[in-house]
Structures are given as structure tokens and as C-alpha cells.
Batch of 3 targets.
Target 1
Amino acid sequence: MLPSPGFRHLPAVLTDHQRAGLQASINRMIEGFDLAASTAVFSTAADAQTRDRYFLDSARGVSPFLEAGCVDASGALTRPKAECINKIGHALHDHDEAFAALGRHPAVVAALRQVADEPWALMQSMVIMKPPGIGGEVRWHQDGTFLSDQPESVIGFWFALEDATPDNACLQFKVDGHLDPLSERYRVEHADGSNRFEALAPLAWPDADGSETRYAPCKAGDALMFGGRIAHASSTNQSSRSRRAITLHFRRAATDWCRDNWLQRAALPDFLV
Ligand SMILES: O=C(O)CCC(=O)C(=O)O
């Protein structure tokens, strides 16, 4: 296994034109969503099995996930559509040209090749919407918990589509978190859809006093690159400023993708860079 990297700030990766193209794609996706199906899944009345199936199927599609508290008792949205969406995942690069181009962005490919000069496979793409006033917290986690290969190689990229600061919930990292062991793995038994977290090693998330936390503010167009072990999080967006971002997760193409990862691309062709 290669050493798991910490985080790197890559300034000005996206031009204004590229950002506008990605935003236009996202806005088209949102316009096209019929949220009736999603509100049923995210309403408090939905059962866990329905929710789990929706999540597993999103590995191959372009699926909206709703913010908590956005659906009222009658199943209606309580805010404008775009403000009710927490994230969109998880195979946008297989369905949208702008996202496919982002996966092949020369700065991304060059950064991956610096880690290992060999083909990489893009496994997951996601939009994190973080709408103003409601965008939900992303709790401390290690990406390797949810995306696992052998030997471990997962690397994430996070692209700021808008300025991101501590005020509007920019990403935060655990100081030296890349040196930590992987604390747990999320395993899915695809035959029956059951899932569980397997504890691997004790790990403390950063203290609430902020002494072990490093904020990673970004200008619109900047990117962050980080390995699968470094714990990261973001708070609720309580500001009046939106904080849209895109994440991509790659692995070295030569590794084995774990069969009990929740994310299985099944018949989708490999996306190699
Ligand atoms: O954008 C965020 O706030 C969180 C993203 C994240 O944690 C991830 O992609 O793993």
C-alpha cells in the first residue's frame, strides 16, 4: 500500500467557464428531478429498506438526496426545490459530459500520476449542495470507511464551485489524520441488502475545541485532494451563502474493489484516466 496522503490545496483548477458548465449541468439535473419519488424515500414514513435500496441504486445513477426536514407530513417540499437537495450522486461522470470532462481534467490526472504513474479509475462523483441556511452537517469520517480497495488507494478530490470559508461550512480536516488507521468499514451484503459497520481500530475524532482541526477555505475553482484515511467533516451551512462543491473519488485501476462496498458499478464501463 502507498502511504495515504494528507490533504493538498490545488488553487485555480477550474476556469470560470468550466465552473459555469458544471453549474449548468447541475441546474439541468435539478430541473429534471421529479422529487415525488425522492420525497417518498426521505419522508419519515419510509422504511429503512426502501432508503437503503435507493442509496445502493444511486451508485449507477444521478439521484438526489434530500436535506433533513424538507418534507412535510403531507409529503410536500417545505422550500424551493434546489434548497431541499443535500447531494446528488453517485455516477454523474457516466451520465453527463461536463462531469466526464472533470474526471479527465489534466490537473486531476497529473496529481494522481504523481501518486502512482499508472491508470486510475473514477469510482464515484457527487455534488454536495450545502444550500444556505439549511445545508446539513457532514460528520467526521474517513472515506476509506465507505470506499475500500485492496491494497488501499482511494483518493478524493473536492472542487469548490463557489467560495468556501468557515462561515459557509468549508471542509475541515483532522491535523495529521492521514497517519491514522482506518477506524471502521461499512460492509453491505448485496445478496440480501443488509449492512453493518465493522470496527477496525479505535480512533478519536478531533476535539470540539478546534485544536486538532484545520479548516480548508477555498476560492471558487480551487480543489482539494486527500487520501482515504484523513478524517474530514463540514458543519451545517447556517450562512446566507450557498456552498456548492463536487467530489470525485478514484482508485488505482490495478487494485481490487471490495465486493462488499456499498458502491458497485455493475454493468457500467470502467472510467479510466
Ligand atoms: O462537501 C462536504 O461538505 C463534504 C464532502 C465529503 O466529506 C466527502 O466527499 O467525503
Note: DSSP finds five helices and 15 strands in the chain.
Target 2
Amino acid sequence: MCNNVNIETQLRRFIRHYTETINLEKFIFLNRNVKYDKLSIDWAVTFEYLKEKEKALTTSFWTSKKRRKKIQRIIEEIPTIEQCKKSNFDIYKNWKCVRCGRKRETFHHVWLCNSENKKMKKIIKDAFDLMVNEIKSIDKYTLDEGNFYDYVWNETFSKLFYSKTQFTFIDIIKGIFPLGLTEYLTLKVKMNLKDRNTISVLFLDFIYDETKLIWYERCNRQIEKEKKLRINRKRKFMRNKSINGRLEDRRLPIRNPKIKAEGLLRGIYFNQKTLDFIIHVILIISY
Ligand SMILES: [Zn+2]
């Protein structure tokens, strides 16, 4: 029983659903996700992309590693210089982006650095071309390419810039999918849910793989620089210990500390889908 209501599903499945709901609520209510309250996001596509096509009972080392990397991105916690300052401030305090040598290297700068401008523009173009080609390869759909590209290039989600309020291409790099694009594919191209989800996840995965190369190259340059300056793991650890004395609290701040799997209870009482309910709550609290 849960809240005095009989649960009719298997216990194991119920507990899994419960944990998933708690995690989802925690994630959506993270302070850093406040931007997404007011934007229209297709969370279903994003979570499908994060799942890495994994079946419930198998977990391979490879997929879990990739999934971890994807999650690191969505919470903007890849080890940039600014991120490293949190644990090794004395080593990194004056360090700038290793590629341009001028700007602070935040999560956004990794993709906005002038040195990568050409490559990033190509990735954006290739990603939307891939989507077009995938749709065209399915006979039952007709796509007005001109209209599609007009729509896409006019929207902020196809543009590379940092914004606290607008949906930009950096959000797509994080794995977040714009609901506007979903609506376009549903209403204008008349795609069914299954095909639309498959192509949308393919699109996000393509962007993940292409931008991963940019991050790898940056990491190689960073490693070279650290080798020259003889900064190794041991030194990072020693310095860290001596300065901070203790490990900092790594938990991310949450806006709503009273998370109680509300979405799951809704499912039990009213047969409502968990994700639908959580999105409904976000809409209410943000307007
Ligand atoms: Zn730079």
C-alpha cells in the first residue's frame, strides 16, 4: 500500500517507478533548471535520449558510461576550468580557456569559444540536415524543406549564444529538446509519435557525438598544458587537501526541498502520467 491506497502493480516495478519519479522531480526542481520553467521543452524526448536505449535488466559498462557523460552535460558539470576551480582553486585561479587564452572557461564557453566557431556552425547545419534526410527516408512523410529550414533558422534554438531566458543551441547540446520542433513535426509533417521520437533522439545523439570531439580536443590541449607545468593527479589532490581541509558539499541546490513523488501519487489516484503531472506543476508555479 502507498498512502493507504492499494498498489496493483508488482512491488519491484512500483519501487522503480517511485525512485524514477523522485529523481525526475529532483532534477526538474534543481536551481539551475529554473530557466526551463518558462520554456517549452519536450522532456519525453530528452529522457529517451538519456536512457541510451538500455533495457531494464541489462546495464553494460559502455552505456552507463555514456549515460553518465550525458547527465554531466545536462547539469553543466563537465570539468571545465571554472568547474576545477571549485576543488583546486589555488592551481587554476588565473587560468583561462586553453584554446583562446582570453576568456573564462565556463560550460557555455566550451561551445562559444571563438576558436570553435566554424566547427560549431557546421555541426548545427549538419544536425538539421540529418533530421531532414531521416524524415525524407520514410516514404509516408512529405516534408516541405524550404518551409522547414525557414522555421528552424528563425528560431533561437538553432542559434549559438548564451541566454538566461531563451532556448538556444547550447540547450540542445545539453540534450534538451524544444517542444516547438516537436509540434512542427507533429502538425506540419504529420509524424507519428514513434517515428518522431526515434528521429529526435537520433538528432540529439548526433549532436552529442559531434560536440564530444570538440570537448576531447580541448581536453588534450589541457592535458598537454598541465603536463608542461607538472600538474598531476597527486599535486591536485595534495593541494586540494591542504587548502580546503575537507571536501565541499557536492549536492546541487534544489528549489523545492519537499519532494514527495507527487507525480507518482497522481498516477495511483487518477491514472495520470508522471511526467505530464510534473510538467503541469512547473507551468503552474512559473506563471
Ligand atoms: Zn576560449
Note: Residues 242-247 have pLDDT under 50 and may be disordered.
Target 3
Amino acid sequence: MIKANQIFVKSPRLTLRRFQMSDIPPFFSYRSHPEVAKYQSWENYQYEEAEAFVKNQLTQEPNQPGSWFQFAIALADTNQLIGDCALHTLLDEPRIVEVGFTISQDFQGKGYATEAVDALFSYIFETLEKHKVIAFSDVRNHKSIALLERLNMRREGHLLQNFMSKGQWVDEYQYAMLRAEWKKF
Ligand SMILES: CC(C)(COP(=O)(O)OP(=O)(O)OC[C@H]1O[C@@H](n2cnc3c(N)ncnc32)[C@H](O)[C@@H]1OP(=O)(O)O)[C@@H](O)C(=O)NCCC(=O)NCCS
């Protein structure tokens, strides 16, 4: 059963919770910001896309092989949406998951992404008991690379021309962390 206001994991300043309808305006605001979209798959993001995205998330559950689930990142004090992080459970090997993340331009540079993804890792390794987490980053996305390395992920590969980004093939780094490497184990 889908639970409204469902909280999946907490950290000192944040909650990772299910998206809710009131998130649509702030979600649209940061998704459509050119700096936030620069290394992402979308371009010229429309309000209707934000509405459809949030409505779809209301019907989804995390940890479904072959699917992406998006966690809303909210300030613990006010419940204000400041970003989102994604969990992709691989279809052929659901013990391995991929993550992605976005923080609103207004809330970057405050350690929120590090705190949110660290909390997501505790959910992945402790609650879902996954074997391995992977993440891909455009090699030009220095903030994303810095975040992945702050989280102690290992760079496992440099994948040449692995992603079609806004009309050009770009290289990506693949990062990973094994369950055995997670700080708690
Ligand atoms: C990738 C992204 C999430 C990184 O966000 P970020 O704000 O740089 O990362 P954090 O929230 O962890 O903040 C780290 C910074 O906050 C500073 N900071 C301030 N207070 C802090 C605190 N209490 N704890 C930790 N760091 C703190 C750190 O020193 C660091 O500063 P620096 O960048 O000058 O070194 C962000 O750039 C983004 O959303 N980009 C667009 C989407 C995207 O490209 N995603 C990646 C592909 S999936």
C-alpha cells in the first residue's frame, strides 16, 4: 500500500521521504534551472513534466527490479523540498543498485547532498541489504565527482562516449561501493 508522507530514512538535517503534490512547484523550479540540468538527461523542463513526474512517484515503490524510485530530500525542520535522489534497482541483478542525485541550486554548497546520499546508502545497505551501489558521472561534472569521492566511492571505470548528452557523446566515470566497504560493516 502506498503511504502518504512516508519517510524512508532520516539524517540530522534531512528526511528522505515520498514525493507529495505540494513538491511540484519547488521541484519544477530547480529541475528547470540551467545549471542543475547541465549534465542531466533533460533540457527545457516543462511544468507539466514536473506534475506528471510527481504524480507517477505517488504510485511507485522502491526496490522494484528494472525501475527507478525517486526519494524527495526535505529539510527535517520545515519539510521543504530541496532536492531528490534516485534508486535504480537493476533488472538482471537486483542486488546491485544505481543512484543519482540533484540538489536545488539554492541549497548547494551546504553539505546536504553528502548527508542525503549517505543516508540513502544506509537505507540501501542496512534496510535493503544490497550488495553493491554504483553511480555514473559525466567526467566534466566536478561537483558530482567531488560528492562521490567524499562518500568514499571508488572510481571503477572511465567509460568512453557512454552517454548522449544534449547532442554529443560524453565520457562517464563509473563509481562503486560494495556492502563490505560501507563504513558500518
Ligand atoms: C552534484 C550535486 C548534488 C552536488 O551538490 P553540492 O552542494 O556540491 O554537494 P554537498 O551538498 O555535499 O555540499 C558540498 C559543499 O558544501 C560544503 N559544506 C558546507 N557545509 C557543510 C556541511 N555541514 N557538511 C558538509 N559539507 C558542507 C562543503 O565544503 C562543499 O563545498 P565545496 O563544493 O566548496 O567543496 C549538485 O551539484 C547538483 O545537484 N548538480 C546538478 C545535478 C547533477 O548533475 N547531479 C549529478 C548527476 S546524477
Note: The longest helix spans residues 112-127.
